[in-house]
Amino acid sequence: MPGTDLKQRLAERFRAVNGDHPMTDADDAYVDTQFVGLEDLCAAEGHDVEEVRRLMLARLLPLPGYLRSDGREMVPADLFALAAEAGGTENLEAWFTAHWTDPAAGRDEWDAYLSGQYVCLHSVTPATIRRKDHLTAAITTAPDEPDAGTAQWSARLHLMIDELDALEPAFTEYDRLRFGGPTSRDTCVVAMRARFPRP
User: Fold this and answer.
1) Coil, strand, or helix at residue 73?
2) Most CB atoms within 10 A, among 49, 88, 145, 174?
3) Closest CA to 193 of 114, 139, 123, 130
4) Sheet-wide strand order for 73-75
5) Which residues make beta-bridge pairs with 73?
6) Residues 129-167: pLDDT tens digits?
7) What are the tens digits of pLDDT across the range 62-82?
8) Nearby residues of 136 by Cβ (< 8 Å), 6 or more positions away
């Protein structure tokens, strides 16, 4: 079948980026609740799945977020939304990177976006990426603020934690393997709530 080669090449690219970690039944079940199959999404939205795989391999669309244990490519339901907003995949890189004033930062974020690893957000847009970066940095450094431990500080901290909590999904054990350690939810939401309980 002509499509098998593209699907295999995409799987190889995915594993080159993420490592070759097995997906468990629990991982598959989690992914099924958060993502959709690439073939299903293409059928529903009128896209040719082979062309979409070509665009992913050509670094014009992001890689799948996950490969299920059965090999299905799992993608966010809004996979095509940013390209549509940008006026097409050929415009997407310039549109995307323009959201950062520092061109180098924009290119770094574009590379991260193409990796498919922004599974840390319910909706992946330049705005949510920037907001997540701001929140994780602010939460991480909050214990070093001069008024740390006060009621006002605690209220500020928990507002930020709650906002990050709403932006991020739960993650799965597979994510901790491919990212080589705890996720931002582990460190900035779960651990910080445990360390600094809400008054």
Assistant:
1) strand
2) 174
3) 139
4) 36-37, 73-75, 66-67
5) 67
6) 999 999 999 999 999 999 999 999 999 999 999 999 999
7) 999 999 999 999 999 999 999
8) 164, 184, 188
